[in-house]
Amino acid sequence: SGVHATLAGVALAIFIPVRDPQEPRRSPLADLEHDLRFIRLNDRASFQRDLALDLDVTRPQKPLMAMDSDGQLHLAWLDKDGADLRLMYARISTEGEVLQGTTPLSTNKMRTGRTAMALEPRAKTVELFWSDNATSRAGLYHAALTWSGEVVQPQELLVEGGLEPAAQADGYGYVHLAWR
């Protein structure tokens, strides 16, 4: 099986021309900053698939991706709008086909966004955690979706003042969470 990677485009920017000679007003470099890219590598680390995901994004940052045992890829990222960040989710196939489009998970705009994702195999849920350090709402937040993308736990404050989550699910139905 191949290796899957999702890049926020910025890492590829040094290989992209600043201007498109066919469309001088368009900048491929600027386009990459506003895309989430999907790349599938084979067992020799050669590109088998490289495409911009057809998702509604503004300025995506810090993507996370995990594959469930059904073979679906769950993708979460922070979307930047000015100085604010919002946690988003989508489901994609191993071919890069969007199975579920952009789903906002955080209802408030965040000031910082450390995120963690765990796939819980018994309940077949995607558990997402993020932190916000805005003084009016600082804390560690949580939302959960089924593997089919239905939100089963909307945004909830788990730990007031909690920051920088790390999460891992085990095979017994527990999700383990650490933060500072």
Largest sheet: 4 strands, antiparallel
Number of helices: 1
Percent range for β-strand residues: over 45%
Q: What's the N-to-C terminus distance? A: 36 Å
Structural class: mainly beta
Q: Which regions have little confidence, pLDDT < 50, spanning 5+ residues?
A: 6-18, 26-30
Provide mean pLDDT, rounded. 84
Helix content estimate: under 10%
Question: Could you state the order of secondary-structure elements as H and E?
Answer: EHEEEEEEEEEEEE
**Tally of DSSP β-strands:** 13
Measured on Cα atoms, how large is the radius of gyration?
17 Å
**Principal-axis shape:** globular
Brief characterization of the structure:
With 180 residues, the protein is mostly beta strands. The protein contains 1 helix and 13 strands; from the N terminus they run E-H-E-E-E-E-E-E-E-E-E-E-E-E. The radius of gyration is 17 Å and the shape is globular.
